[in-house]
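Marked as duplicate of an earlier ticket. Keeping the data here for the record.
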Amino acid sequence: MSDATATVQAASLAQRPKRADARRNFDKLLAAAAAAFADDGAEASLEDIARRAGVGIGTLYRNFPTREALLEAVYVDEVQEMSRSAVDLAELEPWEALTTWLRRFVRFAATKRALHQAMLATSDQPSEVFTACRTAISEAGELLLGRAQEAGVVRADTTFSDVGRMVSGIAAVPAADPGQVDRILDVALDGLRYRGDA
């Protein structure tokens, strides 16, 4: 386990309550906040988040004393899920594992852009947790990209920094047609694939 992954895990575990009922409320709040932030951006109403979770606003504030604490918890939770999925996908063929993860990464990047910007706006410089999250995502992508390159199915002249920027850019495309982002990603992935001398 890398230092970045350990930092992300420690941040997540430090926040989670010990009692089962409190942990259920915490998890419901995280899920409700993730949905609200995806729908309404980082300025989503905290009262609405509590209502979606089926808890009172006091329960929200006991778990997350500030909006920033809630933003960070949602971001950390999503990063952990992306990191776990990279490990889980490693059982698939290298190309399928990489492309499946990159499709998830597009959704992650699209919905987390507002959280990312809001987290950066609250401080002059990124927090240790935020920096660890960014590193953990890169490590997860590098794992799958490296495996695909070793199998000879992905161009050897690219890095995850290249691929991550490409996919993040695609995620930022404002598309009225929901299928357009998928089509653009298909074209980009086709360019990533190794074809030998053909």
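See parent ticket for discussion. The first helix runs from residue 3 to 15.
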